């Protein structure tokens, strides 16, 4: 694949006073400045919850006008919490077609201006209609997955406490993260407010505002697109054969490894979509990076730290970085690019990497994405 990431722009994640377009413009401008404001012939935007005072927001044309990209072609996509990854994959496919040369990919979300009850209802739209109709929420269904996983492998809840402790320790080094400079001890995680047991408040990602922008263009470089894949699973949880694994991730990972002509053993660090702490454990296993039920051991022994065998979520992940729904999938890809480009600052992993992987999840794992980047077509 002859495409690479040449710039990554963030707006800081957290509770922001700015509106959606302001956040997207902040990230987009940062990426444009880094790229030298070269001409762009494609803009791909993603947002899930964009609404103006009169209904759905005309997000893309307003953003193109704000950034001075009126002459570009544009596409808008949505895939719940995997929207950012879908936007990136869409740009890759568009550039591979030969029609476009350079794309600006932006994913953004404004969430903190809505009551939690309203947000829960809006997010439940990505669930199966029968689940939403019965009052199911993301945390409620995630708790079922988490409970089944812990029971299957006979793990204590401290296994998911450690995931949060790690995430917040990584986020404490990321100035763009919602929880920058706010690590937490395991005891605080274990005693946080119950949400849907075994999930407690600090096992769940935070409602957040934020945006990410990535410049993707032809050629090779430190963050070249090596491979990517997408997979589906049954939308309704009760229709799945296994609740302790996400089939969509396994399919997406297999396709990504095959398209990159790589094996799982060649992956040097990962950004996985840990919207809920148990998911981080499941993702490492589904990506083939460790065996079933073994991910807890990797956290317990510190192998996921920046100086470990396989650094996991050096950005803080979704739990530490914050979760502006549409932006998270692109943030994961952006973090992999920054690590490969040597631009991650204080959160750089110990050994300069050559190959990294980003994984994004839509809803409760019904539509997942895997993206592999590496140095110069490695």
Please describe the structure with a list of short key phrases separated by commas or semicolons:
20% strand, alpha/beta, 378 residues, five-stranded mixed beta sheet, Peroxisomal Thiolase, Chain A, domain 1, globular
What does this structure look like?
The protein has a domain at 3-114 and 208-217: Thiolase/Chalcone synthase (Peroxisomal Thiolase, Chain A, domain 1). It has 13 helices and 13 strands. It has helices at 20-34, 59-67, 83-96, 116-123, 129-133, 138-152, 158-171, 186-190, 247-260, 277-286, 295-300, 317-321, 325-341; strands at residues 3-14, 42-46, 51-52, 55-56, 73-77, 102-109, 194-196, 199-200, 209-218, 224-232, 269-271, 355-362, 367-374. The chain starts with a strand and ends with a strand.
- The name CATH uses for the topology of the domain at 3-114 and 208-217 is Peroxisomal Thiolase, Chain A, domain 1
The amount of helix comes to 25-40%
Profile the largest sheet. Answer: 5 strands, mixed
Please write the CATH class name of the domain at 3-114 and 208-217: Alpha Beta
Question: What's the tally of helices?
Answer: 13
Portion in beta strands: 15-25%
**Average pLDDT, to the nearest integer?**
95
Structural classification: alpha/beta
Sheet with the most strands: spatial strand order:
1-9-6-2-5
Measure the end-to-end span: 10 Å
**CATH homologous superfamily classification of the domain at 3-114 and 208-217:** Thiolase/Chalcone synthase
**Rg on CA atoms, Å:** 19 Å
Helices and strands, in order, run as EHEEEHEHEHHHHHEEEEHEHHHHEE
Q: Low-confidence stretches at least 5 residues in length (pLDDT < 50)?
A: none
Q: Which architecture of the domain at 3-114 and 208-217 would the CATH scheme give at its second level?
A: 3-Layer(aba) Sandwich
| Strand element count | 13
CA-based shape: globular
